[in-house]
Amino acid sequence: MASLDDLKKRITSVKSTQKITKAMKMVAAAKLRKAQESAEKGRPYSDKMHNIILNLSKNINDKENAPKLLAGSGKDNVHLCVVMTSDRGLCGGFNSNITKKAKSYFKKILDSGKELKIVTVGSKGFDQLKRAYKEHIIENISFKESKNVNYFDADKVGKMIIEKFEKGEFDVCTIFFNKFKNVITQIPQEQQIIPLKSEKSDDKNDVMNYEFEPEEDEILNNLLPKNISTQIFKAMLENSASEQGSRMSAMDNATRNAGEMVEKLTIEYNRSRQAAITKELIEIISGAESL
Amino acid sequence: MSDSFNLEIVNPEKLFLSLDNVSEVVVPAFEGDMGILKDHISIISFLKPGIVKVFTGNEVKELYVEDGIIEFSENSLSILTSRIIDIKEIKKDDLSSMINEANEALKDENLDDQKRFIANQKIDVLNRLN
């Protein structure tokens, strides 16, 4: 059995771990509120963008000459996957949930004999994927320096993706991120951004007659690259809210577990202390009796 | 009230401005400035760097935009832009750094005409503000 001293040391160590996890939980909670707020504030922009593109693409009758970002390159050979994760750890299953989702998608692509290219955003995703998919990873981007999610970072990623697309380096682009539902639930998502998947709307009546200046396709050419950046930005915002939420619940669990452990250790400590006292007493009494 | 319409200006970070009593908006559309009044035909267009003027009653608000898309339908105007600054809040330092940024972009040999035009336009507007 461990000595009294050892037990005491262990209790102190667990207690200080508990203090750290508790502090991290508080910090995550504060950051979560901010991240959630900015995710909500960012929604009008991406919603409006989506609406305008929807309206535009409905008005384009000449599907064959539609911009490539909308219609695709006509092939389906090379898939680019953008896996968006966090730069920091200790956030529960946040990063592994995304990579798990991504890995099953990778497998599907590789099994069907298509080429796979991976771009990782955030260093944790890169760490988790580099072992199995090292030869597929073409780029690793991390925004450790920027404190908050901002549009210009997203724009950089977006421009890079478009540049690669225009060079014909890939045909289909999918992004992976965690959608923030609430503090406990984050849903890993895959979203295809090139070519743009337009949802089918059943009623044709909501097609508005718009005046376009300049022509539809020119506006679309201008708008689609922006939409890519916007989608990435949205994913980044959702991700950062999810990361904080996930960290908060992970740290909450850790704090609770540490509490339980301290309780158990304290009982053990008290028992062995009592045992030592009893032993000493018995020794004294039996010594006295033998006289 | 009868001659006013809604205006929403959003940037990626937030809803920048939302007004429901705008009488006129002048936007720097790509093919020239465009004034929008109530009951304008539904239109989608995109912007070049310039000044958006918002008229509410007797007040005029001037905002610098770098790019963007406008959509007008059913008497509500949405402006989506990646960078928008109120002219009153613009600082000299920011101005000069933005001008430098545009000048840098112009140095790129492979710039296509459209991008060159936009960069030149940007410098022009910023210099006027300076």
Task: Give a nutshell description of this structure.
Chain A has 291 residues and is an alpha/beta fold. Chain A has six helices and six strands. Chain A folds into two domains: 4-21 and 251-289, Orthogonal Bundle (Helix Hairpins); 33-250, Pyruvate Kinase, Chain: A, domain 1 (3-Layer(aba) Sandwich).
Question: Could you explain the architecture of this structure?
Answer:
The complex is a heterodimer of chains A (291) and B (130). By secondary structure, chain A is α/β, with parallel strands linked by helices. Chain A has helices spanning 4-59, 68-71, 94-111, 123-133, 151-166, 216-289, and strands spanning 78-84, 115-121, 137-141, 172-180, 186-194, 211-213. Chain A has 2 domains: 4-21 and 251-289, Orthogonal Bundle (Helix Hairpins); 33-250, Pyruvate Kinase, Chain: A, domain 1. In chain A, helix 3 (94-111) links the parallel strand 1 (78-84) and strand 2. The mean pLDDT of chain A is 86. In chain A, helix 1 (4-59) runs antiparallel to helix 6 and helix 3 runs parallel beside helix 4. Chain A is elongated. A 5-stranded mixed sheet of chain A has the order 3-2-1-4-5, with helices on both faces. Chain A contains 6 helices and 6 strands, in the order H-H-E-H-E-H-E-H-E-E-E-H. Chain B is α+β, with helices and mostly antiparallel strands and 130 residues long. Chain B folds into 2 domains: 5-86, Sandwich (ATP Synthase, domain 1), CATH 2.60.15.10; 91-129, no CATH class. Helix content of chain B is 25%, strand content 45%. In chain B, strands 2-1-9-8-5 form a 5-stranded mixed sheet, with no helix packed on it. In chain B, helix 1 (92-107) runs antiparallel to helix 2 (113-129). The radius of gyration of chain B is 15 Å and the shape is globular. The mean pLDDT of chain B is 84. Chains A and B meet through helix 1, helix 5, strand 6 and helix 6 of A and strand 5 and strand 8 of B. Strand 6 of chain A pairs parallel with strand 5 of chain B.
